[in-house]
Amino acid sequence: MPAGLLANARGFYASGAAPATPRLASTVLLLRAGDPSPEVYLIRRAATMAFAAGMHAFPGGTVDPRDAAVQPAWAGPTPAEWAARLNLDEPYARAVVSAAVREVFEESGVLLAGPDASTVVGDVSGAEWESARVALIAREVGFAELLAERGLVVRSDLLTPWARWLTPEFEPRRYDTYFFLARLPERQVTRDVGGEAEHVVWGSPAELVNLRMLPPTLVALRGLRAYPSMDAAMAAERDVTTAVMPRVDLDDEPARLFIGD
User: Fold this and answer.
1) CA gap 130, 134 in Å, rounded
2) Domain annotation covers residue 90
3) Nearest-angstrom CA–CA distance, 61 and 51
4) pTM of the shown model
5) Which domain, by its residues, includes 101?
6) What is the pLDDT of residues 122-180, one digit of tens each?
7) Is 165 within a domain?
8) Residue 134 in contact with residue 161, Cβ under 8 Å?
9) What is the reported pLDDT for 145?
10) What is the residue-wise DSSP string for the chain?
11) Nearest Cα to 104, choosing from 145, 141, 57, 66?
């Protein structure tokens, strides 16, 4: 069990404090073809970050209030269909999916959107798009506004639900996080965009599991190894209605972290 998690667990249970309220969040496993297996995109979070500093993670973050308040144009499964799939009320489901698309654009420069339900936008690595991405991160522009100005819609069909994780009750920052898979669109490239990331890497799940990361990231990568191809993983029907919450047993010596039942 990582020393930081163990210290938080011991401090929390000794204090008798109530658990923090989890915040909705989204994260995206961005995939591309590899040889012989698909590759996954990871960022290493900057050492200055308050949460998971120095850890490798997928692009993602918390749902912004504007993800819920302002509705972007939409293509693919409807918010109502996503609500059933994610076990969320429709406004929250729409916000979680919007946040997934927004976060992967902010943190990798990849945009899962297009002018219509059958088209994905092409290269978005130019200076104009980079200015828009920076403005989005700074919250100078909303995501729905950014898409509307360019005549684009969220392509929710490009996302596959993969997992749902709830931060342990002893952590001071807690998140109810939905994990999604997405294929890197043709003619788009990822960029080392800085900000929350100090390093980025593509690699096969087997290669990446040896990096420093939190348990949900590790388990997600291990789960990908069960699928023979990117198409098989993207077509998977996985139950994400119930969150997995790791728990700790402080009575064991050494203390152990348990995932699942």
Assistant:
1) 6
2) yes
3) 11
4) 0.91
5) 3-237
6) 999 999 999 999 999 899 999 999 999 999 999 999 999 999 999 999 988 899 999 99
7) yes
8) no
9) 93
10) --HHHHHHHHHHHHHTPPPPPPEEEEEEEEEE--SSS-EEEEEEEPTT-SSSTT-EE-SEEEPPHHHHHSPPPEESS-HHHHHHHHTS-HHHHHHHHHHHHHHHHHHH----EESBTTB------SHHHHHHHHHHHTTSS-HHHHHHHTT-EEEGGGEEEEEEEE--TTSSS-EEEEEEEEEPPTT-------TTEEEEEEE-HHHHTTS-B-HHHHHHHHHHTTSSSHHHHHT-----SS-B--EEETTSSS-EEE---
11) 57
Q: What is the pLDDT confidence band of residue 259, given thresholds at 50, 70 and 90?
A: confident
CB 39 within 8 A of CB 31: yes
* The token pair that represents 226 in the structure block: 């069960």
Is the peptide bond preceding residue 254 cis, with omega within 30 degrees of 0? yes
Instruction: Please choose, from the candidates 42, 54, 45, the residue with its C-alpha nearest in 3D space to the C-alpha of residue 204.
Output: 42
Largest Cα–Cα separation, the chain: 58
Q: Find the mean pLDDT for residues 11-38.
A: 92
Kindly state whether residue 246 falls inside one of the protein's structural domains: no
| Per-residue pLDDT reduced to its tens digit, 194-247 | 666 678 899 999 999 999 888 899 999 999 988 889 999 999 989 999 999 988
Predicted pLDDT at 151: 95
Look up the CATH number of the domain holding residue 202. 3.90.79.10
Q: How many domains does the chain have?
A: 1
Q: Is residue 65 part of a domain?
A: yes
Residues with Cβ within 8 Å of 107's Cβ and at least 6 positions away in sequence, in order, are 43, 59, 60, 61, 193, 195, 196, 197
Q: Which two tokens stand for residue 154?
A: 């969220």
Amino acid at position 232, single letter: A
